[in-house]
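Lay summary

Proteins are chains of building blocks that fold into shapes. Our project writes down both the chain and a compact code for its shape. Here are two examples, one after the other.
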Amino acid sequence: MSNRDPSNNLDTLPLNRSAVLWIILSQILIVIPHSTHLPNWAFGLSLGLMILAGWLRWTDRPLPPRGLLGVAAITGGIACFLYFGTLNGRDPGVTLLSMMLGLKLLEMRRLRDAMLVVFLGYFLIITQFLYSQHMLLILYLIMASLAVTIGLISLNDVRDSLKLSSKAKLAASLLLQSLPFMLLLFILFPRIHGPLWGIPTQDGQARSGLSDSMEPGQFSNLIRSDEPAFRAVFDGAPPVEELRYWRGPVLWQFDGRRWTSRPPAPLEANGIEGLGPIETYRLILEPSNKPWVLALDIPGAAPGELRMTGDFQLIAAQPIKEVTEFELSAYTKYRIGKELNQEERRLGLQLPQSTAPRARALARSWRDQSSNNVDIVNKALRYFRQQPFVYTLSPPLMRQDPVDQFLFESQRGFCEHYAGSFVFLMRAAGVPARVVTGYLGGEYNPIAQYLLIRQSDAHAWAEVWLDGDGWVRVDPTAAVAPERVERGIGSSLSGSDQLPLLLRNRYGHSFINRARMMWDSVDYYWNYWVLAFGPERQQALMRELGLGNLNWRGMIITLLVSSGLIILIYTLVFVLRERRPILDPIKRQYVRFLKKLVRAGIMVNQSEGPSDLLKRLEKDYPDIAIEAREIIQRYIDLRYKKPANNMKKISQFNVLISKFKTKRS
């Protein structure tokens, strides 16, 4: 015969109805953020199953049979496999887990099932970090963790004796107690290069708007995004706005509509000649899933983890998949590419046959009328200034011959139209030229003192090769809209182009703009101290803390020792707290009443009973005894007689003590 206590069996313990409903609500809160990356059908199914489980519990209806749930689970697994082509990896794993959690809620009959759901909920919270570590999401997930913990406490409160506020206070206390361990793990857990979660994704799409190609309409769509692209912190004052060109992919090949880059070429010796002081700065890049490092034009040198191509673009060894920091330098005055090799000359003059005949004719006329290439460049810029060109976010579609249609018909376009057509004209006139894409400008944040470059700062310009000068930057957009270069995108668009609200406020001095800068400062510090906390910064922090250059073994040992000390401190605190007498609510309020008497100068003897105290007050302090009599009498009734409707009388007793004031106090 077994001596096992059946009350400890997770299969037989009853489920608290309010606890079950709270657990279902917490799981709904957890799955909601996954709506941005789960397939719509999978998110809808998961959420629908959770809502159905809550409705069945609320109305006390029977749960579906296990056989039906088993069939649904198999069907969901097959649907997930057919959609992703696999069950391995981040996206299919999270999708399957979300659906299975919804099904589990529909078979939650025993405490064992409920405990499993709670811990699955904690795990589903962790999976959110596989997609984003944004600060607002972190705050939301903390609240979700609090909700799940309240559900866990409710499961153990079988008699449902605790109020929701008491459960929330206890859950918050438990989370706060875990905070020191979280900080230790963050600081001391050995860091690796690259994202901590090395789980493959199925999309592989870039998060940055830039690509290694350009066609009409690409930048005008990107310009409407207010998302940060990167930030730059300069050692001194940042360069003036017209020198803030951030170099990205360089485009050489043109098929009549689309510009594309060439394979990365090696940097030739002595390819860069600085003509002025060098700028030093820190670049904090947002994840882009591309290897491009958007450096200030022209990079002074390539740090050890980067390489510079023959197009003077900095490239990382791996795509940027997390917030990454680089220490860089740059020349804003320079001479590059003084010697043009045969391959670059061929690419710099390449044009598709039978395209843009009118543009070719115009370029040839400039060639015939000019004595040198500089004169041709000036004629092209003069053409853009004198003709009725319009800088706009909403250019018309040009389906047939984009270059001729833009130059001679619509004359309405964005930076990619001006840069692409200018390079075409230069090549048609025999001047080697190429398109450079990247960003222009940046907004200075005076609070945290950095330049913020957003996707809306994306830009395209041109470079022409001139004898004796090498590659020279020419921005044809400046000929049409000089405000774009000098003051940013918001001051250069026509009145019909409506920017999003945040972008419009960006160029004013409104309260909204200042609040936005304050929030971006918080986001910057979050990125700098948390998301960009890599191996180098971890080692630097170890040295600042006096721990030297710890290897991973040293960090693990330090982590274990520190965790042990925290556990020891917690143990001592709990032991000392348990030794203190715990007063019941009635006694605690009565002690509060006695303290008020002491503050009034009335001596209170700890061994004196309430009846004796009342007699002494009536004899020595009759004015105080009038109000104290009701308090003491109610205390005697609550403490010794246990009247009916106890909670109501306790509440009235508390109110009396709160209002009690002595004339001497």
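And here is the second example, written the same way.
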Amino acid sequence: MCGILAHIRSIPPREGEPGVAPRALQLAMSRLHRRGPDSRGVFESPDRRILLGHARLAIQDLTSAGAQPMTDNPADPRTTVSFNGEIYNAPALRAELERSGVAFRSRADTEVLIHGFAHWGFGGLLERLRGMFAFVLVDRHEPRSPRIYAAVDPAGMKPLLWSHLPAAHGGTLAIASDADALLALLSESPGFSRRINPAGLCHVLSVGYCPAPATVWRGLHKLRPGECLTWVPGDLDPPSVKPYWHPPESVSPDDARTNDERRFETLFREVIDDHLLSDVPVGLFLSAGLDSGSIALALAQAQRTSDVTAWTLASPGIDPAFDEAPIAAAFARGLMMRHRAIDFAPTDLAPTLTDAADAFDEPQGFSALLTAVRIARGARDAGLRVVLAGDGGDETFAGYSWHSGAPHALSLDPAHAVPARSAFDTSPLARPDCDASTRAAARLALAARSYTHRALCRAFPGFHPAESRALLAALEPEYDDDTFAGWLASEDRPRLPHPRRSQRLDVMGFCAGSILPKIDRAAMHVGLELRAPFLDRRVLDWALSRPTTADEAHPHRSKPMLRDFLARGVTAGLVPPAVLNRPKQGFSLRLGADRPIETLAASLLPGSRLIRDGVLRRDYTSFLPGDRDTRHVRLFTLCMLAAWYEQRAAA
């Protein structure tokens, strides 16, 4: 797990001119240091057209043999790669390559990419990889016509951002692990200017995040889950970006349910075992819920719990009924697993928000960012370097409230769907004196536009697009109802049954845009590698193509596959019964102080640079609803945006 960057010019620099401005490269590498604090490396081609950078967090092959960027032949490099992530089936791929006569110089999974590319080609390599990854690979077998390849894993667990400057400004392609590093790398490039993307910030207010391929910065783009990029320096056009993987588009026939439980346990144990591949100790983020609990039980069945320490976020000072730490501790004791709690008290809210603003290269509207930052820092400060987590269990096994078949005003179940509405006049929403009933009706009308609109409205109770435009009017954003949901519409498959249709959108939308940036940025901010077994390609392909069951739509019987797995653990005396009965919480923000978000917003927003610079209008409170839960979500979004902006406005 590391930080990577690349800078590729269409033509070599002039004699005496550096390929990349030294100050820009130094700043970019310093931005990546948090992702890879163990060492740094830079590769530059002899003609200085191509530069790859790497900041290493050493997890496999801790020796210098695992250093990056890595080449096929140090004396005459033709294939060079800068890689971030873990290839869990690297041992099997390595054995296959060795049987073909390939000789390895290291034990690092990075070297599998180099030899795998030479042996199977780019497409064949991607088809074989099982892991979380983002990498840039340079093929210089024809030095005058090098080719650039890049990719991210099917779930999009590891990020990759890119920017292409047109031929008039050098025809440069720049790539990095996050926007902060990419902006630094481009900071002295002719033709590039650091400018906010107004529509991207509107997405943050309305959707909760800025979805790929866009970013909150003009000219910067993100690869989507399962996408790859190819480019030949000298091409006038931007890089070619296309998917090499799609979520399943159909479900298996009903008779495929035979031996489902046995298939799940066999697959899950294999995936968990692969995710323990490491030369350093591995931990587990353990809540009192189904997802991380299933991982813990699988570790126990594999007799690996003695190798693992469980970490739980504790909430002192709140109603004990909402503090998961005692149940998680009992769970860990029953499995003979070491356990440690990390406190998150109301007094930690403001400093953790500042920490999160530093960690996240793009703002989000989900308060779980704070709990992710808090537990990641606490675990890393105690020496942890690799941790398993239950993120992705809701996407793969239908655990969100909107997967339920219960009636709801924004139900995604066709049996309870919102009826279509006629056109709705949204112009009053831009005024601070708009009444609450009109704002509420506009939200329902927005959800009724399409299934994709409804899915986004259900996942995040954000501002209506018209309200986001009004709040950020000084930036003159072009953002409407179609922009709000258009980016996800191509992923909708109406023929899929409920909840598989929603799950598919969740994987490509909410998970890719919010969940995975949350766990990647929070963990990598402190040099911690986080692994999510539920988002392994093998689990996604199997779970999302399974025939549906009646239990999945039951409001109190979500994720029946995991419930049945854990129930067998209860029978065996390994799992506390309370794990099956507790309301869904995960590592969500739970603070006992009275209205802590209101207090935070009152102290932060009025004097914030976001308002002083005129980005956010001063009468923002007029656009907040009276409903407490929705109001707090929107207030936190504004707080996160203000804290993020404060740290980057003058950068």
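What can we say about the second shape? The chain has a mean pLDDT of 93.
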